[in-house]
Design goal:
The longest helix is centred in the N-terminal third of the chain and has 12 residues. 29% of the residues lie in helices and 34% in strands. It is globular, with a radius of gyration of 15 Å. A hairpin with a 4-residue loop joins strand 2 and strand 3. The chain is an alpha+beta fold. It has a four-stranded antiparallel β-sheet with strand order 2-3-1-4. The protein has three helices and four strands; from the N terminus they run E-H-E-E-H-H-E. The chain has a single domain, classed as Alpha-Beta Plaits, CATH 3.30.70.
Length: 109
């Protein structure tokens, strides 16, 4: 049985300055995806030596992801990003089947 569906977007920057702009853009994102049915999580990783940002989203299944991509909320969330389209970046999204997903509970005390 599948544990879920994930998309990893690999973003490569040409310069450190562009990388910082990409990181800032994710820190200032609208946060619309968290409200979507079937959305499990988001991880954004940056590697300053490699000038890369990895954006990983986790979904219940491909259908939940596709509903997000085809939604008005997706269009609005990405309009902001497109309006400040960063030259000096390349991006590639790759789909994965999640085989196992283990999260350690956060200590909130």
């Amino acid at each position: 049985m599948k544990a879920g569906f994930s998309i990893i977007n690999y973003i490569k920057a040409d310069t450190e300055e562009t990388l910082e702009k990409v990181i800032r853009a994710f820190k200032e994102r609208l946060g619309a995806v968290e409200k979507r049915e079937g959305f499990f999580g988001l991880t954004v990783l940056a590697n300053k030596e490699r000038l890369e940002v990895l954006v990983i989203t986790y979904w219940r299944d491909r259908e939940a992801f596709e509903k997000w991509v085809n939604s008005e909320e997706f269009k609005r969330a990405h309009e902001k990003a497109r309006s400040r389209r960063l030259s000096g970046t390349t991006s590639q999204g790759v789909e994965y089947e999640v085989i196992e997903w283990i999260m350690k509970p956060t200590n909130t005390s």
